[in-house]
Amino acid sequence: MHKEHTLTKNQQIIFDLIDKSSEPLKAYSILFNVQKKGIKAPLQVYRALDKLVEIGKIHKIESRNAFIACHNSSCQVAKATAFSICEICEKVTEISSAGLSKYLANFKDKDGMKYSKYNLEFFGLCKKCR
Amino acid sequence: MHKEHTLTKNQQIIFDLIDKSSEPLKAYSILFNVQKKGIKAPLQVYRALDKLVEIGKIHKIESRNAFIACHNSSCQVAKATAFSICEICEKVTEISSAGLSKYLANFKDKDGMKYSKYNLEFFGLCKKCR
DNA sequence: TAACACTGTGTAATAATATAACATTAATAT
DNA sequence: ATATTAATGTTATATTATTACACAGTGTTA
């Protein structure tokens, strides 16, 4: 469950845009879309994105340099994320699997190290594209 | 096991550099380092990197925009990768765990979809930095 | 051998992604 | 109220990656 954060004006504008979107949005596409609301510079966008990622409202899809709203209400740790990505239509879906997150959170490497933060991106073809 | 590929001159120069490195290398750092060998332009580097990734000789660390040689000789699928990344010293280690790769290769999402390609990046502190 | 496809190269220009530096303002805490 | 922290606005710049075009090598095949 997300801790409640009161978003600032810029954060809210940018979160709303990402949240409404059916696909991950890139920073400069966001910038273009919010210029009419007074957000003029890349840095304003990146600062809001950084904060939104930090508080777990959005996630960055690293392989795509794009941002998606978190729709995983059972997400305990904002930084333990898993996605599936369609290599044709680029549809991205956040995976919420208790089994998967449990497995990864408990995974130990050769040195016995555990990691509470991770990012997993699966690639394949979605239903429609198969 | 990697299929054998005869690397071209540029690919070999760039692979050697990455392979010798103890840390992931960024494209423009590679460019700087191979300029004395006649590779002058970013595109020459990116083309070699693309090919090396494609044939599984190197992997891209997506969260860092950096490239590391594959040291996972049991790697069946070049595109099923897992790494641990130290958030302090930025040390990156490729994880070779039969259990993990089996678990992920067999993972099914809600729609019953399986994914043979994935990229997993774990974040935490390495032994030295704890 | 010529025609073709395929892969790689070289070069210049530019696009796309992200941060540094600095001045200012708003919000929060004691 | 004032010190502190977080957010903003703005300009400039750094970093990462691709487009476009000309050409060279290799192998196939017709």
Overview of this protein structure:
Two copies of one chain form a homodimer. In chain A, 32% of the residues lie in helices and 20% in strands. Chain A folds into two domains: 61 residues, Arc Repressor Mutant, subunit A, CATH 1.10.10; 45 residues, Dna Ligase, domain 1 (2-Layer Sandwich), CATH 3.30.1490.190. Chain A is α+β, with helices and mostly antiparallel strands. In chain A, the strands form two sheets. In chain A, strands 4-3-5 form a three-stranded mixed sheet, covered by helices on one side. Chain A has a two-stranded antiparallel sheet with strand order 1-2. Chain A starts with 8 loop residues before the first helix and ends in a 6-residue tail after the last strand. In chain A, helix 1 crosses helix 3 and helix 2 packs across helix 3. The model of chain A has no long low-confidence stretch (mean pLDDT 93). The interface between A and B is medium-sized, with 28 and 28 residues. Chain A binds a DNA duplex (30 and 30 nucleotides) through helix 1 and helix 3.
Instruction: Write down the secondary-structure element order of chain A.
Output: HHHEEEEHE
**CATH H level of the largest domain in chain A: which superfamily?**
Winged helix-like DNA-binding domain superfamily/Winged helix DNA-binding domain
Averaged pLDDT of chain A: 93
Low-pLDDT windows of residues of chain A:
none
- Please report the number of helical segments of chain A: 4
State which percent range the strand residues of chain A make up: 15-25%
- How many domains of chain A? 2
Strand order of the largest sheet of chain A: 4-3-5
Main sheet properties of chain A: 3 strands, mixed
Helix content of chain A: 25-40%
Quaternary structure annotation: homodimer
Under the CATH scheme, the architecture of the largest domain in chain A is Orthogonal Bundle
> What would you report as the Rg of chain A, rounded to the nearest angstrom?
16 Å
Net shape of chain A: globular
CATH uppermost class of the largest domain in chain A: Mainly Alpha
* Spatial gap, N to C terminus of chain A: 34 Å
CATH topology of the largest domain in chain A: Arc Repressor Mutant, subunit A
Which structural class do you get from the secondary structure elements of chain A? alpha+beta
Biggest interface, and residues per chain?
A-B, 28 and 28 residues
